[in-house]
Structure formats: C-alpha cells, structure tokens
Recover the amino acids of this structure.
C-alpha cells in the first residue's frame, strides 16, 4: 500500500534509545552502502543495502535498479497511455494478444488470487475504479449513480480474461475489458528489484515501492529490519506496531488514506467488484506477510474486499500470515491469523 507501511530506521532509533541502557554513548551505525530513494509509479521508492559486494558500486546498482523500475512502469501502468497495459486496455480485439513475460507473471498471479477470493480481488475492476474517481482518469469526489455502476459492471469480471502462460498470450472475450494492476504491480516491482540485488550478490537489503516492502538479512545495526504498521487513522500518522522481520515481504491495504467523503460517508478506493460499491465494513487495515511482495500486495487488497470474517476463514484455510485491524466502538482491535502468530514468534 502506498503509505501505510514504512521503514522506521529513524523512529526505531528514537524508540530504542528509551529502552537500551547506555545507548547515548553508542556510536552511530555505519551508513548503508546503498541508500537510494526516488519516485516511480506515482509514488516513492526506497532501496537500502547494508553492504555491497566488492566490485559492485552503488552508482552502477542505482542505474540498474532504476532501469528495472522504469521498464516495469512502461509495461504495467494505466497512467502511461503508451504502456503495454494501456494498449491492451485501449484495444477492443477479442483474439489472443502477445504480452511480455512481466505482464504475464503479474496477470497470472492476479487471476490466481481472483479464483482464491472468488472474485473479491479482480484486476478487471479498472472501469469501476475510474467511475469512482480513483483511477488514472480524473478524481470526481462524488458517488456515481447506481445505473452507471450497473452499466459498467457488465464489462467487469476476471472470467472474461484468459491467459496462456506458455505462449505468453492473453485474451479478453469482451471488447470493453480493461485491467488495473495498482493492487499488485508495485509488489511485483519490489520483487524484481530484490531479485536483481540478490543476483548482484547483495545479502542484506530492504526494498520498498509505495509501501510494499521486501527485506532480507540484517539492517545497518546488525538487527532485523523494523517495519512500522500505522494506526488506521485518516488524519494522523501514528504507529500501530513495529515488526522486526527478515527474509520476507510485507504489504498493507486499508481504507483510511485514499478515500473521499460525502455527507459523512466515506468512499474508499477499494471496490467490491461483485457489488460495484466501495467497501463498507469494520475491517480497516490488513497486513500480509508472504515470501513475495506481489502476492502479499494482492492478498491484502483481496482480504480488504472480503471483510474480516470471510478473509479470516480464507487466510486460515490457506495458512496465510495476516493481521487484521478492526474498528470497534472501543477502538482498534488486532486479529492475527495462526500463521501470523507462528511467524512473529519464530522470527522474534
Ligand atoms: P492497494 O491497496 O494496493 O490497491 C488499491 C488499488 O487497487 C485501488 O486504488 C484500485 O486501483 C485497485 N482496486 C480497487 N479495488 C480492487 C479490487 N477489488 N481488486 C483489485 N484491485 C482493486 N498513480 C499516480 O497518481 N500517477 C502515476 O503515474 C501512477 N503510475 C502507476 C504505475 C504503476 C505501474 C502502478 C502499479 C501504479 C501507478 N499509480 C500511479 C498508482 C499508485 O501509485 C498506487 O498504486 C495506487 O494509488 C494504489 O496504491 P495503494 O497501495 O494505495 O493501493
């Protein structure tokens, strides 16, 4: 998610100074040998490597990683009219179309998560996202008429998208079908950067794109990476909890950053494709831990659409490590899955 998760090196040092005796005399940790922050995909990214192998320079790596991110943006963006995805969306051809291996991997995983969530997660939700004003087209800040939603729903449904991973081809069986990878492609970008770092011999890193994160090894203090989950409040940025993690990806989805309000009703950017409406329930944030950021990213959105009861059932059945935060009359309540508790216990 764009802003719910963030790396808290600075905040953690402040917190830890409260608890570690003699911390004020300790020397500062060594600087990261790669510390690269910039923008991509309408958001920011941050890449840190504790140490670089001999013969690998930060400047070379930066160039390589930026090229990866730029290429993915030009393939997977709905905000770039000339991107591979935009061209597929603009076309009304209902025969098979060749795609890049990158687009195939993301679409294939999206379709798997759609099946798993029985259509709660659905990248063909694009026209609804735009109708509600959250997509690449202009923001409207008004709830659309029911008739407009119903008309657009006829052009939605992951079952109208077919994929052939062997031949690298995809096909829409209705001309209007259009895809939005905003809930999965940032995670994929994180994974691609992580793999490039590993291929270069980097052992200890943090990669974050728009809040989707993947970490490996240790930070510059020789500890696990400390990742903050924010309290799901719209107008404040307060920590809900800190996760010390390593060798895992983490993604959060929530209803409290990207939304508009009309007459006291909040309309969030997560849309239930089955009703055409923005989600409305007491599940306000979901964090998922998974080996890949792509899957964590998509599952977090899928779970947000499903709501707490259904999402918990699915997460337990599939043994997914997830932390649900519910808004109750007495405040926020955390509901972890069994796998989340196992993971946190094992990794602490
Ligand atoms: P997440 O919680 O991860 O996903 C929510 C998003 O998924 C929604 O905003 C919607 O787009 C979509 N969605 C809603 N309901 C569903 C559903 N049921 N199933 C599946 N998906 C759903 N933004 C810009 O402003 N400018 C840009 O140039 C730009 N370029 C981008 C390029 C790429 C390749 C990508 C992936 C995104 C780009 N974005 C851009 C979008 C932006 O950075 C965020 O991805 C977007 O705002 C949602 O991110 P999130 O993490 O907050 O949402």
């Amino acid at each position: 998610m764009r802003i719910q998760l963030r790396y808290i090196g600075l905040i953690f040092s402040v917190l830890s100074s409260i608890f570690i005796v003699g911390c004020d005399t300790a020397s500062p940790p060594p600087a990261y040998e790669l510390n690269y922050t910039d923008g991509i995909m309408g958001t920011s990214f941050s890449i840190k490597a504790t140490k670089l192998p001999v013969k690998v320079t930060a400047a070379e790596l930066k160039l390589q990683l930026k090229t990866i991110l730029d290429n993915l943006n030009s393939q997977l963006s709905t905000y770039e009219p000339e991107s591979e995805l935009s061209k597929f969306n603009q076309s009304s051809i209902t025969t098979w179309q060749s795609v890049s291996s990158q687009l195939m991997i993301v679409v294939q995983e999206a379709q798997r998560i759609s099946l798993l969530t029985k259509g709660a997660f659905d990248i063909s939700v694009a026209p609804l996202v735009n109708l509600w004003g959250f997509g690449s087209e202009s923001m409207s800040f008004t709830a659309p008429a029911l008739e407009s939603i119903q008309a657009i729903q006829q052009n939605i449904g992951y079952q109208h998208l077919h994929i052939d991973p062997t031949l690298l081809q995809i096909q829409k069986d209705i001309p209007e079908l259009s895809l939005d990878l905003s809930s999965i492609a940032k995670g994929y970008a994180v994974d691609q950067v992580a793999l490039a770092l590993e291929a270069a011999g980097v052992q200890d890193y943090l990669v974050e794109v728009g809040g989707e994160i993947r970490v490996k090894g240790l930070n510059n203090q020789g500890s696990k990476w400390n990742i903050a989950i924010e309290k799901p409040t719209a107008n404040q940025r307060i920590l809900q909890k800190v996760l010390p993690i390593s060798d895992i990806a983490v993604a959060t989805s929530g209803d409290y950053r990207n939304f508009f309000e009309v007459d006291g009703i909040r309309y969030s950017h997560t849309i239930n494709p089955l009703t055409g409406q923005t989600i409305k329930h007491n599940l306000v944030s979901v964090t998922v831990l998974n080996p890949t950021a792509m899957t964590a990213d998509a599952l977090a959105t899928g779970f947000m659409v499903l709501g707490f009861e259904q999402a918990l059932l699915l997460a337990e059945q599939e043994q997914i490590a997830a932390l649900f935060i519910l808004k109750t009359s007495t405040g926020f309540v955390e509901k972890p899955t069994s796998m989340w508790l196992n993971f946190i216990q094992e990794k602490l």
User: Anything to note?
Assistant: The radius of gyration is 20 Å. Residues 58-76 form the longest helix (19 residues). Residues 288 and 322 are 4 Å apart (CA to CA).
